[in-house]
Every structure is written in C-alpha cells, then in structure tokens.
Amino acid sequence: MPNEQEMELNPVPGDVPQFATAEYAHIPGTERCRICNSPILESYYRVNSQMACAKCAGEARQGQPSDSHAAFARALLLGGGAALVGMALYAAFTIATSFYFGYIALGVGWLVAKAMLKGANGIGGRRYQIAAVLLTYFAISVSAVPIGISSVIKHNKDKAAQQNQPEQPADSAATSSASQSSAQPAHGVSSISGVLAQLLFWGLASPFLELQDPVHGLIGLVILFVGLRIAYQMTAARALEVDGPYGITGA
Fold it and tell me: Which pTM was predicted?
C-alpha cells in the first residue's frame, strides 16, 4: 500500500492536467463553418486552423479548393475597402510631400491581399488572385486622379499669385460672366458623370501615360508590376492542413 507521502509525490493520473490535448469548448448551434458559413452542430474540423464543417474538411482532404460564395464575397468586401484605404494613403502621401514614392505600390498590394485573406479566412485561389490584382491596380492607378487635381489647383493658385491684373470694369465683368454662363449648357448630372468617367479613364491609363517620360514611366511600371505580383502570390491557393474531428462540448 502506498503511503500518504508517495501519493502526494505521485498524484492520481486523472488529476494531471493534459497539456498535450487541446480542448475547445463551444456552445452547440452557435458555431459556424468559417468556409461555407453552415452551422456546426455535433463535431467540427480545423482546416488551416480555421473551424470547418465535415463537408469542407472532406473537400480539403481530397485536395479540392474549399471555397464558397460567402467566403469570396467577404474577401471582395474587405479587399475593396483595403484598396480604397491604400489609394487614399498613396494620394495623401504624395500630395502632402510633393514626392512621388512609387514603392508605396508594394504596400498597397500587400494590404489588399491581406484583407482578402482575412475575409476568406485564409482560403485562396485563382479568382482571389485575379480580384486582388484588379483591386491593387485600381488603387494604385486611380490615386493619380486626386494627385493630378491637387497639382492643378496648386499650379493655378501659384499662377494667380504671380499675376496682378487690374480688375475688370463692372460692365465688362458682367458681360464676360453672362457670356460664360450662356456658353455652358446646363447638363447637370450628366455633365458631372461625364467628367467623372473621363477622370476614371485617365486614372486607369495613368501608369502607361507616364511613359511619356520613358525612364520615370518604366520604373513606375516595374514597381507597379511587383506590387501586383505580391497581391497575386499572397492570394494563391495554399496546401490545406486538416485536423479533426473534434466534439463540441455539450452536444
């Protein structure tokens, strides 16, 4: 019979914490598959550390891409938001510093891809890659629109400050204003939408328009290509690691 001292030194095996076994406590009916968003009732799996249902885990084990419309929609939503943020940061930096730093394009590509992976819970694939490239190109190219508008406004202000022209007589000023108002047709929303469409088209084409300065334009295109490549590679399909099944506590 073991004495009390031996029992203290050798506790009962059932009382020893099992650090090697990971147990996850979940409330049945509240957990959902992170891939297809279907409810998980009895047991679950882990695909690349993301909770998954038996169907998605089976597809992953067979080497098929565990993808869904819901995952792709979340990836597009977060990726689009990241593209707008990247465009704003790119434009704001250039406007504030008056310095064109093309390497920000690399950060924009990384930001868009990271956001898409977050939305899809780590699932990648061809359509994610195409979407990431398009969003990255949009963010980088269209940032030229606010940069160009800011440059024109600044140029006009500098030009107006340098010129001290005498004020026009009241009659001539009124005549000039009237002629301008009569010359401009009141198209309203249609004219505004046309201007916005032209600005968008100019922004999308701006990386290639920069080739008017061959050296600067070519460097910009190379940096842009690297940024697009970063977004493309980060959103590629990955090898899927499947663990499980795990039972839900309380089921």
Answer: 0.59
